[in-house]
Amino acid sequence: MQAIELLAAGIAIALATWFATGVALRHLRRRAILDFPNPRSSHSAPTPRGGGIAVVSAIVIAWVATAVIAGDGAALLVVALAAIIALISWFDDLWGLPVAFRLLAQAAAVAIGALLLPGEGRVFQGWLPPGIDAVMAAFLWLWFVNLFNFMDGIDGIAGGEAATIGFGLMAVALAAGAPPAAAYYALAVGAAALGFLKWNWPPAQIFLGDTGSVALGYFLGWLLLDAAARGHWAAAAILPLYFLADATLTLLRRLLMGEKIWQAHRGHFYQQGARRLGAHRPVVLGILAGNGVLVALALLAALAPHLAGLSLFLAAVPVGLLLWYFAEPAKDSN
User: Fold this and answer.
1) What does pTM read for this prediction?
2) Distance of alpha carbon 321 from alpha carbon 19, whole angstroms
3) Where are the domains of the chain?
4) Model pLDDT for residues 87-110, shown as the tens digit of each residue
């Protein structure tokens, strides 16, 4: 019975997001809220941005309904915090806001959210004292919010990642016997991302904007930390591994090269791949294929905890292959 309910809910959320995104697209075009190409862009034509407002709205409605039915006060507060940072990001999409202000708002949202995690917030499984555990969890969450925004640089990539992580977390919740609400929260994110992909699949008609990418990073960050706090740390690390690896390695490389890391750039591995292959679609399809392997390994780790370490080790293989394949050849200094 639960499978039928999940399927019905997923279809309803995906269709609602698809319809709402179409409405948002027309509104954004009329108001000329566009993302214009620049030397660091991966697109060549002005494209409406801010479509994430439809995605976030669908997720918020689904989460509130689920939280009310489940009596989950923590999730209701997480929804409120996500809505606040989505609103701030919407204003940033429209007029631009100081980076420090946005980062401070995100830091406050993750700090509060980290205090609401289950299992006394033991994300690191008791390896760290509770206070340090919460601080490190908040730091990772803040990094994930921003890296998800950084990784939204070509058509379909953020929507595809959100869909696979969302559905992957739903599968892990079902397989591991997590509370039913956990599966519905994850389903809502995956289905909303899938509905948005109809409009964002290469060539994209609309972009998420910071409104969508920042909020999706917040929602997914909560779900991943929630899974880790419930004991499924390996699945939580495996599912977003490609995004984590690409963004983190790119950041470290730019730091070592002395670049200004807060400035927009085109140095991510997936961006190199899009340039080398001359299109966005093969890059996104490659990442989705790799994510399929990661979902399978996350499920293995959830179903067989004694194989969690092996699953995490094996997850590095598809991620490493993707990074290697996308990377542009080094230029000959001669």
Assistant:
1) 0.95
2) 37
3) 2-35+43-233
4) 999 999 888 899 999 999 999 999
